[in-house]
Known about the structure:
By secondary structure, the chain is α+β, with helices and mostly antiparallel strands. Among the domains are: 1-118, no CATH class; 202-310, Periplasmic binding protein-like II (D-Maltodextrin-Binding Protein, domain 2), CATH 3.40.190.10. 32% of the residues lie in helices and 28% in strands. Strands 7, 8, 9, 10, 11, 12, 13, 14, 15 and 18 form a ten-stranded mixed beta sheet that branches. It has a four-stranded antiparallel beta sheet with strand order 1-2-3-6. The protein starts with a strand and ends in an 11-residue tail after the last strand. The model is unreliable at 1-98, 111-118 and 366-373 (pLDDT under 50).
Amino acid sequence: MVSKHIWCQQVHPMALVSTQVETEALHPPLGRVGNELASFRGGARWQAEFHFSCEQPLSEASFLSFDPPSGGLSHSRRRHCPREREKRFVGTNVNLFRIVALLISFALFAGCDSGTPTQQKLQTLRLATTTSTNDSGLLDVLVPKFESTNTCEVQIIAVGTGAALRLGEAGDVDVLIVHARDDELQFMQAEHGTRHHEFMFNHFVLVGPKDDPARIAGLATVDAFRKILAQQQPFVSRGDDSGTHKREMQIWADVGEFEPWNDYLSVGQGMGRALEIADEKNAYTISDVGTFLKRQSDVELVVYSGRDQVLHNPYSVIVVNPNKSKLINHDLANLFYDFLLSPETQEAIESYRANGNQLFWSSRPSSSSGKNQ
């Protein structure tokens, strides 16, 4: 049991935020928001209960979220609260402290009105995005520009593509960035989204130990996978229903007769952690090139395949259908959609570098009219 109290730093002594965090074994996913986030990760499930009270209208206060033991994250927001409120939020997985910290702040402040008629709280856009766009650092460049232009706050929920699509289907987010084309088209055909367009791409890479125990150097991707399977070499799978995991399973389907073996490790982790595990286990894995190049200096893995057509990796933006929930900020989601397709953002995507390497390429759409692909 971990308990932590967080005091608001403000001029009135009566505002208190308290948390209790408890971990327990994680069982099959339960669906929707907090439990949805559990559906693609193994590990622990944790529950936090928050109590926030204000006896009278307060002056501006700064609320600090807890620093999780494994992540050292802090998060702050500024709001006025004129009346007593109590919120409860259930989150999941010790590896998701950043996501949950953002959602905690949303849960605490969603019901607080502005202190005076002249003061207005920022609009919030809930963005469910594949972990690769977050781990690569690209969103750290794009999101502040959108927030500044539109005087809003973007809450980033970095999950696998499968989990992101389920959050969209449930109406728990406003807009999606995903990279699994067949699943995207099914999402649109079911009318879960209103606008859908590819806005950038890169490619996947097959990476592994420098000594290449499977001797796959120079082979086409499917042939390399077939040889790894035949020799039952150590292989790390994300196993999280992400776009990367979906592509891996497509390649195994092309190989045929795939059955997991003892050294096939389905880790249920994001791309950054999957690369670390592959490095630790002297194993092969598949990664989006953006995350690999961003993390390349932290691991001793090398690229063995990366330019086959089977490894092409397009990213799309989807606006969630506002009929899903009254809480969906459809107008702001449409603005974000147009922002990603704008010439300025396309240029920023092309210009983005990590360790001197280009990670993404612009899809250069001819227009941002919003017609579905």
